[in-house]
Flavodoxin-like domain-containing protein
Amino acid sequence: MCKLLDLYYYSFTGTCKEIASELGQFLGIIPKTIESHNFPYWTWLLLSFFPKVSTKISYPPPESREAILVFPKWTFNCPPVTAFLKKVNFERLFLIISYGGWGEKPYGERYKNLALQRSTYLALHLVRRSDWHRNKKNQLEKIKEKLLAFFNLPHIREI
């Protein structure tokens, strides 16, 4: 059981929830959901065009100074995630962004810069949704290796 980390996710279609669930099983922790408005797709799409827009959210309070955050790449912004990163402080934060289209690297850089305003150490991993759905085991192994190195958790390798 890993009590050293918090594992948060925001998911609209279910892919990020699935990634967080797999990681939670591996690490022995229960993923925590970031909740927001139940807007229809078109409303979220419109809001995603404005890079600094955030929205009202709720989430269980952090229990650790280290965390993993799994979330989707939307057009230029994911307002619930932007709101979350403006509110929390972590010593170490590992971002996992699930994407399906274009512009994932600049999007990741924007979120790294936002997260670094309230976190000391940061890592980023990008997961193409089609790769995740095609070969979850392989994608999960890539994420696990980066996580173990970033959080210095060699003892979990045997789990």
Notes: Strands lie at 6-9, 32-33, 35-36, 57-58, 66-72, 90-99, 119-128. The chain has six helices and seven strands.
